[in-house]
Amino acid sequence: MGAEELTTNNRMELMAAIMALRALTRPCRVSLWTDSEYLRRGITEWIHGWIKRGWKTASRQPVKNAELWRALHEEAQRHAIEWHWVKGHSGHPGNERADALANEAIDEMLARA
């Protein structure tokens, strides 16, 4: 669990997935659930084009958060991952727990500031 100042929700969604995959000590079959379409579509759809275009978007702009996308892609290569989307704030127990942990991390960071 952690928090970071001056970040975005998209960066933290990417970091959560990266850290979850890094926690696995051997190659695994993984079902990864996220409420972020940015994360799910980025890793399952968009990343292939970004790599082909040298980390540029279809409009030839640099990919935002490219360093995190690269790290996630590298971590994902070790595993057989099924990426799932769940609607946020809809009562899904795992998503509610993730939100609670994220809020705890923010509270702890603010208390230290």
UniProtKB/TrEMBL annotation:
Class in the EC hierarchy, top level: hydrolase
GO MF annotations in UniProt: metal ion binding; nucleic acid binding; RNA-DNA hybrid ribonuclease activity
Reaction(s) this enzyme catalyzes, per UniProt: Endonucleolytic cleavage to 5'-phosphomonoester
Domain named RNase H type-1: residues: 1-107
Cofactors: Mg(2+)
Keywords assigned: Endonuclease, Hydrolase, Magnesium, Metal-binding, Nuclease
EC number: 3.1.26.4
GO terms under biological process: DNA replication, removal of RNA primer
InterPro entries xref list: RNase_H (IPR050092), RNaseH-like_sf (IPR012337), RNaseH_domain (IPR002156), RNaseH_sf (IPR036397), RNaseHI (IPR022892)
NCBIfam families hit by this protein: PRK00203.1
Protein name, per record: ribonuclease H
Lineage: Bacteria, Pseudomonadati, Pseudomonadota, Gammaproteobacteria, Oceanospirillales
